[in-house]
Amino acid sequence: MLYAVFMSSVLPPLPQPQEPFDAPQLLEVGPAPEEPCLRADAARNRARLLEAAARLIAEHGVAGVTMEAVAAAAEVGKGTVFRRFGDRTGLLMALLDHSSRQLQADFLGGPPPLGPGAPAVERLRAFGVAVLYRSAEQLDLQLAAQPEPTRRYANPPMQALRTHVTMLLRQIEPGADCELLAQTLLAYLDPAQIHHLTRQCGMSMERLEAGWTDLVDRVTRTAPPR
Fold this sequence. Notes:
By secondary structure, the chain is an all-alpha fold. Helix content is 61%, strand content 0%.
């Protein structure tokens, strides 16, 4: 089931992170900072549009989500959809917003090993597995919602993931160039890469999960003795 179905639900406040005091603060995932707080009626209209988009995905796949189709399904003018989301990519990114927030809540304050309380290397392994399966579940939507190349690595959800991986790496390998290592690890979790490996190369998710664990162990030099 797509996380987008629940976009209209009210999210609980994020738990307070239990990270070291010198850990970088993760970015908030959600509307851009310059976006004003929505009035109650505007928020309802936004939820109505997202619910219509989620229905279209369930019935026709991501290809069935166009600005015109969403406007028709929500019984509003097309201009309303464009004013709310800017373009189709903005609409699809909004559909992914809820699951991005949930993932961030899980690795900031959820139970270990993904959340605080486990050694950093165990959290890093669990993080990759969580992202892999989330991406596999939402793969078509994630591919369609990917920003253009010049914006792909600067959008808030990606920055939040990169900051978290960098923080974990600094706990494991404080002398390494953790920012560049984080970029390398996250490339393994890229939706386009997952699409290629699973749908074009026929690799199983179990193989990708084992590959992620092996990659983390080699990068961090923490592979258990064999």
